[in-house]
């Protein structure tokens, strides 16, 4: 009985490994329909990409990189050619100068740039077309993760499950019930734990990650015990321990 109890308690239960379980016997479809993703508002150190086009591309060449540069732009190029929101919440665009964009969505920045161009440099017949995007969603993931580090996903929206999958998933000894998201706000830093084994995680405001989020996965107690994550590993550890104790006893007796 002691042997069986030891093996059971030292193994990682299946329920601790499965994502988005319906623990409250609710309808998954109803939960998914309640997910609301608010538009992201720019903060300091964010990098955005602004592309300006017109019927005559030569007219707007001074405002944005050339078409050939856009086609060959690398990940590093996006960082250097993009517009970084500085500590004062502004970006500097050629000719237009400084624009205060902190707290704006990318759509609001697009409208602001279009308005300035039409008011000061072009008329409506020029057919100005402005595109504003985040230069990827950069986040850092650490702890019990297969591939920790700083990652970039070139998408407008990224869920925490996509972020974890991009880091090759949580290890078997990772605690999926208390994944910590550390997020920067203008008023300071906030920490929030999210239970990824519960389907209600879909309703969490932290289900969609934001640029510069830090995700930390804590270890389970089984890793601290060092007994193994499966029944076979736990049994092997117990046999090894028993053999060591028996050998020591016989040597001392003789």
N- and C-termini, Cα separation: 31 Å
The succession of helices and strands, N to C, reads HHEHHEEEHEEEHEEEHH
Summing up helix and strand content along with how strands pair, one would put the structural category as alpha+beta
- Biggest beta sheet attributes: 5 strands, mixed
In words, what does this structure look like?
The chain is α+β, with helices and mostly antiparallel strands. It contains eight helices and ten strands. It has helices spanning 2-10, 28-32, 67-71, 75-81, 106-120, 160-166, 221-225, 231-253, and strands at residues 47-53, 83-84, 90-93, 97-100, 129-134, 137-143, 149-153, 174-185, 188-194, 213-219. The chain has a five-stranded mixed beta sheet with strand order 7-6-10-8-9. A hairpin with a 3-residue loop joins β3 (90-93) and β4 (97-100). α1 packs across α8 (231-253). The longest helix is centred in the C-terminal third of the chain and has 23 residues, at 231-253. The protein is elongated and about 100 Å long. Residues 67-72 have low confidence and may be disordered.
Descriptive tags:
10 strands; alpha+beta; 8 helices; 24% strand; single chain; elongated; 254 residues; 5-stranded mixed sheet
Give a brief outline of the structure:
The model is unreliable at 67-72 (pLDDT under 50). The chain has 254 residues and is an alpha+beta fold. The protein has eight helices and ten strands.
């Amino acid at each position: 009985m002691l042997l069986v109890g030891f093996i059971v308690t030292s193994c990682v239960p299946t329920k601790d490994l499965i994502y988005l379980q319906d623990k409250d016997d609710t309808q998954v479809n109803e939960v998914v329909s309640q997910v609301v993703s608010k538009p992201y508002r720019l903060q300091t150190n964010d990098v955005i990409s602004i592309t300006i086009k017109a019927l005559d591309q030569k007219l707007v060449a001074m405002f944005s990189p050339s078409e050939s540069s856009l086609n060959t732009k690398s990940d590093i190029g996006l960082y250097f050619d993009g517009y970084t929101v500085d500590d004062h919440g502004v970006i500097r665009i050629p000719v237009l100068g400084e624009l205060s964009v902190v707290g704006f969505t990318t759509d609001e920045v697009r409208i602001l740039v279009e308005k300035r161009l039409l008011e000061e440099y072009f008329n409506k017949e020029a057919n100005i077309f402005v595109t504003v995007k985040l230069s990827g969603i950069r986040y850092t993931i650490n702890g019990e993760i297969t591939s920790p580090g700083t990652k970039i996903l070139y998408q407008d929206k990224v869920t925490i499950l996509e972020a974890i999958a991009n880091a090759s998933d949580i290890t078997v000894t990772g605690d999926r019930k208390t994944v910590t998201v550390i997020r920067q706000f203008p008023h300071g830093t906030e920490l929030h734990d999210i239970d990824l084994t519960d389907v209600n995680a879909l309703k969490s405001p932290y289900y969609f990650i934001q640029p510069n989020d830090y995700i930390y996965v804590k270890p389970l107690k089984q890793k601290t015990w060092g007994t193994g994550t499966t029944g076979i590993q736990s049994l092997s550890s117990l046999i090894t321990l028993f053999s060591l104790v028996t050998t020591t006893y016989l040597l001392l007796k003789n």
